[in-house]
Amino acid sequence: MIELRTSPHVKGTLSLPQIMRHVVYALLPICAFAVYQFGLSALALLIVVTLSCVLTELLFNRLASKNTTIHDNSAYITGILLALTLPPGFPLWMGAVAGFVAIALGKSLFGGIGFNPFNPALMGRAFVQAAFPVAITSWTPAAMNDRFSQFIPSSLSFPFALPSVNDAISEATPLALHKFEATTTSFNHLFFGFSSGSLGETSSLLIMLCGAYLILRGMMGWRIPAAILLSSAVLSGLFYLVDNSQYPSPIFMLTSGGLMLGALFMATDPVSAPVTLKGMWVFGFLIGILTIIIRLFGGLPEGIMYAILLANASVPLIEAVTQPRKFGWLSNRDEK
Amino acid sequence: MAFLDIFKYKTFEHGIHLKDSKDRTCDQAIRRLPFSPILIVPLSQHFGKPAKSIVRKGQEVVRGEVIAQSDGFMSVPIHAPASGKIKEIELFPTARGPKTESIVIETWAGASQRLGQTEANNISQMSREELIQAVQNTGMVGLGGAGFPTHVKLSVPEGYSIDTLVVNGCECEPYLTTDHRLMLEHPQELLQGINMLMKTLGAKQAIIGIEDNKMDAINAIKNQLSGFESIHVKVVKTHYPQGSEKLLIKVLLGREVPSGGFPYQVGVVVQNIATLRQLGVLLPNNQGLIERVITVTGPGVKKPGNYLVPLGTPIRFLLDYVGFSGTANHLILGGPMMGSTVSSLDVPITKPVSGLLVFNEQSVEKETGEIYPCIKCARCVEACPMFLNPSMLGQLAAKREYESMQEDYNLMDCFECGCCSYVCPSNIPLVQYFRISKSVMRERAVSQ
Known about the structure:
The complex is a heterodimer. Chain A has two domains: 15-171, no CATH class; 172-321, no CATH class. Chain A has 14 helices and no strands. Chain A has helices spanning 16-38, 40-63, 74-84, 92-104, 120-131, 174-181, 187-192, 204-216, 223-242, 250-255, 259-266, 277-297, 304-313, 315-321. By secondary structure, chain B is α/β, with parallel strands linked by helices. In chain B, helix 12 (390-398) crosses helix 15 (430-447) and helix 13 crosses helix 15. The longest helix of chain B is centred in the C-terminal third of the chain and has 18 residues, at 430-447. At the A-B interface, helix 1 of A face strand 15, strand 16, helix 10, helix 11 and helix 14 of B.
């Protein structure tokens, strides 16, 4: 039996589920480190949020009478990334809500993978930031002694009851410390990750290594992270040069908060980023600049989330003005 | 050394790197295929008007004799690939799909198959017009795959002059090794052909562009270069689709052919190796094109190699000769990136066919996969050698917004090289979308 097909008859080996699977692999070391630092609560939060994302995706597949799309592995990424942006003592039920919102409002309502204008994980995070402002800003110190034997009390708080915030074990993040108390955390703490913060925003070294793995394997573009890191370093560097008593150093800016995780794993979500190569640079620069402006002049200590969401919103405009140059439009037209 | 080569040779921007899969045939010398008892010779083997048959059923023909005349300027004559009797003139399936009128020749078993007598051309005495006419008489078309009549390419419109003949020795499609073997085995004939065409065009120089995975061919030509001062060999880095005219001109000369335009607009004519070498043989002797070298290979072939095949040989005969294993169910004429599958084993080898690839079930299965939505990963944008935006084009095609594809996103610049489909992790059949969109737009242009 002869089969008729259209060219090309050979195909590259990289497939969508494979890329997504490798992103999950790249996130696992970051998860492991988060669990090492924050113990049981972190582990439970990771599991609950990811499970919530996967179940929500299944639910919406069912509602839309579509075949299940779990095997493209993207719901796992959303779940893990979302959990990594949450504080370790974040109540688990709120984590489940965040996961539901991320997939439902961030992805499924737009038509599933490929159609979401915003990064789903950040949609979920933005929702809980607005809905549960206290819980999302209650940080616990890293590497507490009893972290593997008991949960952080707020983790297990009952749904719809106000979480019991235990002031005794809460600690401000490096960015908040700098913004509100003018204390700078040391580079070593930030780089190797022994400061308080969200699950996945503590060791910028580890995040860089995991991102580098994906870039070297050809699973992730390098332009967007490069543009974000470059622009935020340059802009914060300028402020630092102007007044180094008021503004933090660029190194502090790059290694603190969620900037590294955002630059390497959030902004690089291909669906909500521009498809044009020049557009990727514009997109990255926009995120870098917005982040620094929000951090330095906004009411919040951290700005990467809103910077990425705002840049997501401007993607259609960025793409419209950065279409690739047409081949055959050089000045030598009709040269004889 | 090999490491440094990466930096030494130039290539074009974008495009993709493919596994070349040429090892099985690149060391196989060209061998002649026996004559098939039946030859099916379509009247349309080229781009343009079909030739007009001048033979009738039952007539006896001698190998090399004209059996169909060219119908105007955009057409070429067809010569008898073997001595024999005309069995019938009927509709037969062809590589392009629709059935076309074909002359069927019953070859004489045991005949010597000597070529009919022809009067030799005196190349050095001929004017340009006479040379172009002589090229048309050979029935030569682009043997690289396009099938565009060679004499039409040589007839440069008034107001343009050609300074460079670019010789396409890239053979960038995986599996194919015909040009490679021809360069190795017949460099002298190739150089003769180049010389004759330079004279026809009035070109000052010729540049042979060869990819760096064919170093033996490069050396074979370089060894023969004395006496051909205006012919240069340039090594380029192996990259797909470098064999595309516009890209090769860009790599070798840095000139960009205007969008929708032709190479002569930048003073260049491009011809491929097989075409030039064949002209080097045919033109002085005033003979016609009756056979060509094709690569027969692929996972389903037992005796892969480069075969000199009489035009009109049915695929069935060729496959029986080389032997195929298992369920060979995926037959491709041409290369794996741009070739087309055939619908019937009666399809004959025609002038533009450069290879026959036989893939079996296992190798086919790997290529297919579930189609996912576009995740805008931009791999296609990074691969498109024409700097198009296949991601956007694909989404527009799905919505049938063909006008926008053509006007805002330069759909017509796409030459269907297949890079975007190849790299797409979502398995979206982008090239197929664009092919449909282009034909819809062409039909609309005609009907308006």
